[in-house]
What does this fold into?
Amino acid sequence: MRNPFPDTLAFRTTALLVIGLAVTHFISNLFYTTDRETALLSAGGEHAIQWIATTGAFADTISDAAWADVIARSNTDSRFVMVADTPLVDTPRAGGWREDALQRELERHVAPDHVDEFHISFAPRDHVPESEMDILGYFSALDARNTADFILLSLKLDNGRWLNMASPVQAAPPFFSARLGLSMAVMLVAVVAIAAPLVSRMTAPLKHLSNAAEKLGTDVQAPAIPETGPEEVRRTAHAFNVMQNRIRRYVEDRTQMLAAIAHDLGTPITRLRLRAEFVDDPALSQKMLRDLDDMQQMVASTLSFIREDTTSEPQATVDIGTLLARVCDDLEDSGHDVALADMPRWVLVNCRPVALRRALGNLIDNAVKYGQAARVSLETGERKVCILIEDSGPGIPESRFEDVFQPFLRLEDSRNRETGGTGLGLSVARTIIRGHGGDITLSNRENGGLCVTVILPRAQHIEHGESAVS
It folds into this structure.
């Protein structure tokens, strides 16, 4: 099954960051929701304690007549207050984690020497103590939200009476709620919006490096890549540029050396040809001249190959079907038996057109020479094209498929000895095809003959600055 997501370092880094933050956010919300003391105080306990602590701070300044107005103003849908002769909470506190949490919060808001004047307790809805305060009746009359529990507080006043207060504790919302979903969605959108561009920018130099490494296999003269990005990426890019320069110098040195050797051989071959003319034995003279002709042709082929290899032909995007048609037409005009199957239109490849025509021409010409006739067809894929060149000759033993690509090697036992040639054709063709990022494979046909398969990468689009050649 094909992965629907891009398999890139930028996507993996962003996904890892998003998943990590989402899990952290989820666990943080879980801890917050399951923190019993925080939930109790946030549900109303802290607000009730703050109110009675503030009221107790100035309770001694309020006259008995003024208490009625204070109580009337204090009673709301979240607080029921009244002054009575008896405390609503008759003991400072009962045992339990709720009372412990409420008492600690009370001690934070009240001076130590006045803590004993406050009594605080937690009461479930069905255990509200009976007193002058009709707590359930008050909140039912207000049509307040159905609450499960109450926080009860009593403050002893200077006149001996008690200020009693009951505050409902709202039930904590469920953990899996719309609020959690909205919080997660906002967090994820924010992380993706911020992290994705940054991660993409950080990994862009790696993409340039991979493209340059792929291009190096087909063009050793490719320009150096920019040394930008984080330190590790800059060092890698610098090492790559140094490696590319060394490979370029190595190839240039070896090519120049080979060219010099091939060129210098021309002079002694010419001298030997002159001396062979003065040999008294005509038969021996003819044999020597034929050998010298072969040597001369090999030197010429070598020089031609080197000139082709060192020529910096610009790349272009071409229609491979049209290019094949031109190659086959040229060979047909020369009297060769070449048949070209119907070609699909606009199958584009990025190539050096002259070099590619030479490689395909060599392959089709070999098929005609050694197999009497050539049949050329094209198969297309999403990312590559396959050119099939089939002949009707004797074929090649599978054990020698690789040997035929060696320079100056001809399989005399399986090919026609009278066809001539220096044995550079297939070597030159494979060098050119591999220089385009492709390859050549050989196979024997079931009904006899050889099938040469040329594989080339298919152009996904026309690069900026390039033209489509038809």
Notes: The chain has four domains: 9-28+176-216, 35-169, 231-308, 314-469. DSSP finds eleven helices and twelve strands in the chain.
